[in-house]
Q: What sequence folds into this?
């Protein structure tokens, strides 16, 4: 029984964290909030590529690192903790769509370019607010051209490649600068991302040949797991900063962290964040070993991490007092990022409903569940 | 990351489940079997079965063989907890001895105490009670008033203990008592842990009826009760340190047994929800109930992951320290959430044994009430939160 990161994964975690600590800290994040930028700091994006953080899931035959979702999740958690901007996740998801649904020729054309840092990805896999399954895809049917309102898409304006899902389970490559694609940038509260409204009107599209509802669901679940990692990172950082502040901040002649009302809340939060971390870790591992309960694990991770992060960023503001509500304090970076990620790829209620579908409506709920990560219960796919 | 157990550990699982198949009668696995027995009959049946299990080599799984244990690994102990819960096997009659006294004796006891105490305890020849709480000393344990007067070769004990599990069935009781007056108002000083025989005229145990209607715990009155001077554990006057060490032993344990048990209860709640009508559909189709059941399931599965984490760390010889207070917080809170969902599913039906014809819920209802005790005993949820805040997060006292 080894429920822990490997030495290599810990080394990766240290590398990401130490890069961010030294080169992309709160000052750089603040610059995104105080000035108008394209949301893709050049030095950071160069490093993200050079360190191999984009290539992590790309198979070695396409010049990638061929690692697993748990490795990617290590990166996403560190990125959440440091409120890192940029299209890392959406580029990773373009890669996953290609890896899982692309023909050999499509993979050979695009994946090596992705590992070279030549692809900046954007994805529109689910309508804003819809349950993350094929029925929630933004486009009705896919063909050589696509038409539909994609809603708000992260980094659509900066992207070189856009992947759009259709309700028949199709995954399609679209050139975001091509005709029939209208991108209207929006100002996002969370300045660690860029949002744009994207409308397709007969935009040229190339269907990934291995597309299917099952593959689309797989990509959506993997996205949810990586966002769960990001949220667990946000939650831990929000808790840690709050604890450190409340050890120092004095009121009534003593540190506010000595008051039981605050202590008990933060103790509960520590438990919740720890569980969110466990859930994000297991879910990523479940995909790496193709566990029968991986869909359940994804929904557990996303709902738990969103729940913990929501509580953590709220506590961060509350237990910093007035300063926590100011623009000058970092709390709002975490609050705003958390709100975005809580809603990404299914919110808490949607994932809980899916858990109910899998375990209550599904094939059954065994009296003697396995405790070694392999549920034998019915895994009704969340596909339409 | 590798969630598989070793082949040796899995061999142990097979050996245990094979033995359970042959030696745990089907009727004993059913809750109804126990519902028909009195408290005394229940206890005797469990003790007899547990003795048989010990004789078959399944006592003290991770304990050294020289003290009557099996000499297994922490993983085997976790597998044991899991399989016992899966089989709905009778829970141990000696929980306080097993979890607390035996490991404390291993660290602080004399060789004679180890020989005298551990094996009979593991094999249920001696049932141990814990004499800690008093009416005025619950969470504030050091406020205890029990007096032990030095009479040369023995102590004379006077006072009262309360919330004593198995008070009516215990053979011996490890008792915290004041062997000298607290000096200079230091209430932690002058306490000793005494190992007292319950079969003596100076000890009277009375049952306390719980909200479930059962009487698993009781009060113990000491009136000039006797305790030999050599029956001190950890040295005279060191009782507080001994007690803190004793309570720390819960820390290293994984909650996989609790998970397995609560997960089965969750499934039972779902089955009930699928049978009960509510607003023209089943309760299991009600969106609010579904959210509640799913939320409880999330906590349950997180408890499983946490158990893996604890097992990983303890298998590598690491002490989780105060971080492990979280385990108790986590499982007791999760148990209560499953119970909340159960009560909401039943609604008015929670009041009766048969919410609808053919549906019997007596045992589940008892468990739902029992969950209310688990956030109190062994350090209340509030005490645990303070421990986590101060010892894990480092918040100031």
A:
């Amino acid at each position: 029984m080894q429920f822990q990161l490997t030495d290599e994964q810990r080394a990766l975690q240290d590398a990401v964290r130490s890069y961010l600590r030294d080169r992309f800290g709160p000052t750089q994040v603040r610059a995104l909030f105080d000035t108008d930028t394209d949301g893709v700091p050049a030095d950071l994006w160069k490093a993200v590529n050079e360190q191999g953080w984009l290539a992590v899931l790309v198979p070695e035959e396409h010049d990638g690192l061929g690692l697993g979702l748990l490795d990617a999740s290590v990166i996403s958690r560190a990125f959440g903790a440091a409120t890192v901007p940029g299209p890392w996740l959406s580029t990773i998801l373009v890669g996953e769509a290609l890896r899982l649904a692309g023909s050999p020729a499509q993979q050979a054309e695009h994946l090596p370019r992705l590992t070279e840092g030549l692809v900046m990805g954007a994805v529109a896999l689910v309508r804003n607010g819809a349950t993350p399954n094929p029925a929630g895809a933004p486009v009705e049917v896919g063909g050589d051209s696509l038409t539909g309102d994609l809603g708000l898409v992260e980094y659509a304006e900066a992207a070189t490649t856009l992947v759009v899902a259709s309700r028949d389970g199709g995954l399609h490559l679209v050139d975001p600068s091509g005709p029939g694609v209208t991108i209207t940038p929006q100002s996002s509260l969370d300045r660690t991302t860029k949002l744009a409204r994207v409308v397709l009107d007969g935009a040229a599209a190339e269907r990934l040949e291995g597309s299917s509802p099952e593959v689309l669901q797989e990509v959506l679940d993997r996205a949810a797991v990586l966002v769960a990692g990001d949220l667990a990172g946000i939650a831990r950082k929000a808790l840690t900063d709050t604890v450190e502040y409340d050890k120092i901040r004095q009121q009534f002649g003593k540190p506010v962290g000595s008051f039981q009302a605050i202590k008990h809340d933060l103790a509960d939060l520590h438990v919740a964040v720890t569980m969110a971390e466990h859930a994000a870790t297991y879910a990523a591992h479940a995909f790496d070993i193709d566990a029968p309960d991986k869909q359940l694990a994804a929904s557990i991770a996303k709902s738990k991490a969103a729940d913990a992060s929501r509580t953590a960023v709220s506590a961060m503001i509350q237990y910093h007092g007035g300063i926590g509500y100011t623009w000058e304090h970092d709390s709002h970076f975490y609050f705003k990022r958390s709100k975005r990620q809580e809603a990404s790829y299914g919110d808490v209620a949607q994932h809980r409903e899916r858990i109910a579908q899998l375990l209550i409506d599904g094939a059954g709920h065994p009296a003697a569940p396995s405790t070694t990560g392999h549920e034998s219960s019915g895994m009704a796919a969340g596909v339409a | 990351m590798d969630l598989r157990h070793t082949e040796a550990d899995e061999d142990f699982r097979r050996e245990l489940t094979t033995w359970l198949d042959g030696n745990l009668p089907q009727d004993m696995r059913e809750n109804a079997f126990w519902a028909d027995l009195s408290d005394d009959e229940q206890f005797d049946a469990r003790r007899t079965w547990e003795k048989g299990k010990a004789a078959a080599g399944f006592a003290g799984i991770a304990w050294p063989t020289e003290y009557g244990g099996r000499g297994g690994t922490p993983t085997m102990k976790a597998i044991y907890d899991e399989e016992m819960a899966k089989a709905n096997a009778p829970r141990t009659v000696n929980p306080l001895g097993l979890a607390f006294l035996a490991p404390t004796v291993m660290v602080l006891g004399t060789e004679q105490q180890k020989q005298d105490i551990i094996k009979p305890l593991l094999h249920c020849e001696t049932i141990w009670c814990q004499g800690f709480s008093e009416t005025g000393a619950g969470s504030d344990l050091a406020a205890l008033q029990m007096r032990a007067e030095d009479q040369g070769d023995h102590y004379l004990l006077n006072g009262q203990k309360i919330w004593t599990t198995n008070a009516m069935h215990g053979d011996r009781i490890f008792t915290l008592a004041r062997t000298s007056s607290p000096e200079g108002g230091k209430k932690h000083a002058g306490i000793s842990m005494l190992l007292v025989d319950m079969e003596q005229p100076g000890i009277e145990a009375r049952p306390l009826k719980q909200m479930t209607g059962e009487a698993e715990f009781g009060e113990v009155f000491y009136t000039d009760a006797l305790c030999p001077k050599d029956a001190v554990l950890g040295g005279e006057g060191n009782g507080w340190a001994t007690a803190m060490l004793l309570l720390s032993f819960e820390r290293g344990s994984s909650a996989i047994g609790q998970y397995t048990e609560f997960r089965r209860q969750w499934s039972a709640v779902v089955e009930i929800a699928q049978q009960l009508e509510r607003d023209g559909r089943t309760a299991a189709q009600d969106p609010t109930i579904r959210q509640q059941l799913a939320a409880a399931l999330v906590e349950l599965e997180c408890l499983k992951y946490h158990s893996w984490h604890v097992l990983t760390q303890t298998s590598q010889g690491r002490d989780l320290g105060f971080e492990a207070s979280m385990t108790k917080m986590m499982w007791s809170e999760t148990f209560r959430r499953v119970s909340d969902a159960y009560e909401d599913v039943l609604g008015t039906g929670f009041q009766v044994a048969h919410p609808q014809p053919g549906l019997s819920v007596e045992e589940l209802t008892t468990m739902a009430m029992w969950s209310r005790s688990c956030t109190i005993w062994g350090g209340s949820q509030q005490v645990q939160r303070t421990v986590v805040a101060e010892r894990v997060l480092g918040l100031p006292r």
Summary: Chain A has eleven helices and eight strands.
